[in-house]
Design a protein that fits this description.
Layout: E1 3-11, E2 19-24, E3 27-32, E4 39-51, E5 54-59, H1 78-88, H2 94-110, E6 113-121, H3 128-139, E7 145-151, H4 162-172, E8 176-177, H5 187-204, E9 208-212, H6 222-232, E10 239-243, H7 246-249, H8 252-264, E11 268-270, H9 273-279, H10 295-300, H11 324-334, H12 340-348, H13 352-357, E12 373-376, H14 381-387, E13 391-396, E14 399-403, E15 409-411, E16 419-421
Parallel strand pairs: 1-4, 5-6, 6-7, 7-8, 9-10, 10-11
Antiparallel strand pairs: 1-2, 2-3, 4-12, 12-13, 13-14, 15-16
Helix pairs in contact: 2-3, 5-6, 6-8, 11-12, 12-14
The structure holds fe (ii) ion.
């Protein structure tokens, strides 16, 4: 037996150490110790952690890298972001959208982020965003699995023509039905929009991923309707609720009823830690709410929780770098998920849980799955998050598509010999 590529001396997510991974024909074909068969190429991981790729289940690729166009968000709020995006929309061109999106995909792939679900604003009658991102989906197919959500940013009922535009975008080939019930004019319209959008998804055989309750208003309870409509339309396991930030501020008694409803409907929950911590709580003085949904409690109820990046250098967020470890790092802090197991859960939330939310069946570091993986300059998932670890190699379909030099510094002090500092060499002391 021979391999196209063998990764030697890898630490795996399941805790196995010093394993070799053989890849051939675009598949993982062996995971064992001491592979000695011939290989077209060999990577010596030297005890580094090897993970399946990072997956971002919530992004806005039509807005990414537009920071400063046509101006900056001065208040930093979600609503000014939406208004600013509204100013930019008439100025968008297909060429500029494609150029920015592909540049972002290149950055993402270099960081081992190989699947992204992007919402696409379908409020503009030209549908230039949908046209552009459908083109991008094809252009990046060889290295990024891009899913697109038809997202009526200005409201399914609130924005004239949105209902028709959303259906047109789906006809054009956009994959998933989106929504924004908390932005409709009334609570009643919000609930009606959830029902209408779930019906469309059921009729077309599509998944649903809704921006839902992205507000500090504890009475914003559209996820309750989302759970009910999911069950009514037989969409269990095919619906995601993105953000759900109002849960942060809700009454505990009500949440004790709500979480089992979300679990029953098998809804995937997608918080966006970097964005939730910056956009929520903006109307508070002190104490200021964090505004991220109740991640540990949702996970404890057996609900699949996956973290999204949401924004990079756009009207809502001026930072970000396509690094899902930065997303997980923020989640650890915001949710105070600091136990060893909880930090590992945050790593899962940017890898396996995200793949599950996106329905990626071919994903995982197992024999028979797609030959996609990332070699990290860290020894395990906890170190990977702590260091936002360097990606030493990114492998897609059995081919190395990105490589980085080991990150280290040469420390020179007057009273000592020069020392090489490798951040990944600082391990916790056991016991
Ligand atoms: Fe979003």
């Amino acid at each position: 037996m021979s391999f196209d590529l063998v990764v030697k001396h890898a630490n795996l997510p399941d805790g196995r150490r010093d394993m070799d991974i053989g890849l051939s024909g675009g598949r993982i074909t062996a995971i064992e110790t001491g592979i000695s068969a011939e290989a077209g190429e060999t990577i010596d991981a030297t005890g580094s952690f090897v993970s399946p790729p990072f997956i971002d289940p919530h992004f806005h690729m039509d807005a990414t890298l537009s920071l400063g166009l046509p101006r900056m968000n001065l208040s930093g709020t979600l609503l000014e972001g939406i208004a600013l995006w509204g100013e930019l929309k008439p100025l968008l061109t297909r060429e500029a959208l494609v150029e920015r999106a592909v540049r972002y995909c290149d950055l993402a792939a270099s960081q081992g982020l190989l699947a992204i679900r992007s919402h696409v604003d379908v409020s503009d009658p030209r549908l230039v965003t949908a046209e552009a991102l459908l083109e991008v989906r094809d252009r990046v197919r060889g290295y990024i699995d891009l899913q697109l959500v038809a997202f009526p940013q200005d409201g399914y009922f609130r924005s004239p023509g949105a209902a028709e535009l959303l259906e047109r975008a789906l006809d054009m080939g956009v994959d998933i039905v989106g929504g924004i019930p908390h932005f409709e004019r009334t609570m009643e319209d919000g609930a009606k929009s959830v029902a209408a959008l779930c019906r469309i998804a059921a009729e077309r055989g599509l998944r649903v991923d809704m921006h839902c309750d992205e507000t500090d208003d504890p009475m914003s309870r559209h996820v309750e309707t989302l759970a009910a409509e999911t069950v009514r339309h037989g969409l269990k396991g095919r619906v995601a609720g993105s953000h759900l930030t109002s849960m942060h501020s809700m009454d505990n008694y009500y949440v004790s009823k709500l979480i089992p409803l979300i679990a029953e409907a098998e809804i995937d929950v997608i918080p966006n830690p970097l964005i939730n911590i910056t956009l929520q709580g903006r109307h508070d003085t002190y104490p200021k709410r964090r505004g991220m949904t109740r991640v540990p409690e949702l996970m404890a109820a057996g609900i699949n929780v996956a973290f999204g990046h949401d924004c990079v250098m756009d009207p809502w967020y001026s930072l970000g770098s396509g690094d899902m470890l930065e997303v997980a790092h923020m989640a650890v802090h915001v949710a105070q998920m600091t136990s060893r197991d909880a930090i590992r859960s945050c790593f899962d939330a940017v890898t396996v849980n995200s793949a599950k939310a996106m329905g990626l069946d071919d994903y995982g570091l197992e024999v028979g799955k797609a030959a996609d993986l990332v070699v990290l300059q860290a020894r395990d998932p906890i170190e990977a998050i702590r260091l936002k670890a360097n990606r030493l190699a990114v492998v897609k379909a059995g081919r190395v598509i990105a490589r980085s030099e080991r990150r280290q510094s040469r420390l020179t002090l007057p009273d000592r010999d020069a020392t090489i500092i490798d951040p990944a060499s600082y391990a916790p002391r056991e016991g």
